[in-house]
Amino acid sequence: MASHQSYGSRRMVAELSNRGITAGRFKVRRLMRQAGLKPVWKRKFIHTTDSKHDLPIAANVLARQFNPAAPNKAYVSDITYGTPSQRSPPALG
To answer: Start and end of every HTH-like domain (predicted)?
Structure first.
């Protein structure tokens, strides 16, 4: 059965039942674990950026000149995309 790793024990029991094979969910779960079969859940796609807007875009004041003439004249930052669980802790130091 080509399931692309989407069949868990409940769905597997239903498919086996459709094929005339009787098996309990916990037995199927145990056999799947022994065989190293793990279902992969499909996550909902999360939009993180909206580029289609009429809002003003910040001017590029530094124009990639990252060496200011005096201290405290220019500050830079960065954006990290992804959900908090996907990000690694910030490097402090």
So the answer is: 3-45
The whole model's pTM is what? Answer: 0.43
Q: 16 near 10, Cβ under 8 Å?
A: no
Q: What is the pLDDT of residue 53?
A: 83
Distance of alpha carbon 15 from alpha carbon 80, whole angstroms: 42
Rounded-to-integer distance, Cα 42 and Cα 37, Å: 16
Residue holding tokens 């199927």? 28
SS (H, E, C) the chain: CCCCCCCCHHHHHHHHHHCCCCCCHHHHHHHHHHCCCCCCCCCCCCCCCCCCCCCCCCCCCCCCCCCCCCCCCCCCCCCCCCCCCCCCCCCCC
